[in-house]
Design a protein that fits this description.
Layout: H1 5-32, H2 36-59, H3 93-118, H4 125-151
Length: about 170
C-alpha cells in the first residue's frame, strides 16, 4: 500500500501512541490486581513505545501531517494494541510477554508492508527507508521479547488454551 511521507508518519505516530496508551492501561490494571511482575513488564513496554513515538515526532518536524479521523487510518485497530486477552487480572509474566511480542510482531508487519508498498517504483523512497528502519526496530523488539520468553517459565495449566499456538 502506497503512503505519502506525511500519511506514513501520521500512521506511525498514531501506532506508537496507541501502543503506549494500551500498555499503560494494562500496567495500571495489573498493579491494581497486585500482579506487580507483569505490571513492570508493561511499564517497560510503555517506555519503549514512548521513545519510538518521540523519535518519530522529531523526524516529522517540518512535515505537515494530515489530521486523520479514526476511520481514515489504514487499519481496523492499530497493530500494537492487541486484543482484550491481556486484561485478565490473572495474567502471568509469560502471557504478558507473549501478548507484547504479538503486538510488536504486528507492528513489524505493518512497517514491512508499508516499505514494500513504497518500494514498488511509484512510492516515496523516504517512506521505504523509514518503514524499513521502523520494521527493523520492531524486529529487535520481537527478538528481545523472544529472549525474555525463553527465560520466563511458561504456565503449565493442562486446560489452558493458548491463542498463539495450536495444541
Amino acid at each position: 500500500m502506497d503512503y505519502t511521507l506525511p500519511l506514513f508518519l501520521a500512521h506511525a505516530i498514531a501506532l506508537e501512541h496507541e501502543a503506549a496508551e494500551r500498555y499503560l492501561e494494562l500496567a495500571d490494571m495489573m498493579e491494581a490486581h497486585r500482579n506487580d511482575e507483569v505490571a513492570s513488564l508493561f511499564r517497560d513496554m510503555v517506555r519503549y513505545s514512548r521513545l519510538h513515538h518521540d523519535s518519530i515526532v522529531e523526524r516529522a518536524r517540518g512535515v505537515e501531517l494530515p489530521v486523520l479521523h479514526s476511520w481514515q487510518y489504514r487499519w481496523r485497530q492499530p497493530p500494537e494494541t492487541g486484543g482484550d486477552e491481556a486484561f485478565d487480572p490473572a495474567l502471568t509474566a509469560w502471557d504478558a510477554l507473549r501478548y507484547a511480542r504479538e503486538n510488536e510482531f504486528r507492528a513489524q508487519a505493518f512497517y514491512t508492508l508499508a516499505a514494500a508498498g513504497a518500494g514498488t517504483g511509484t512510492g516515496d523512497p523516504e517512506v521505504q527507508r523509514l518503514a524499513s528502519e521502523f520494521a527493523a526496530e520492531e524486529a529487535e523488539h520481537v527478538q528481545a521479547l523472544d529472549r525474555w520468553l525463553a527465560r520466563v517459565p511458561r504456565p503449565s495449566v493442562p486446560w489452558r488454551i493458548d491463542p498463539y499456538h495450536e495444541a
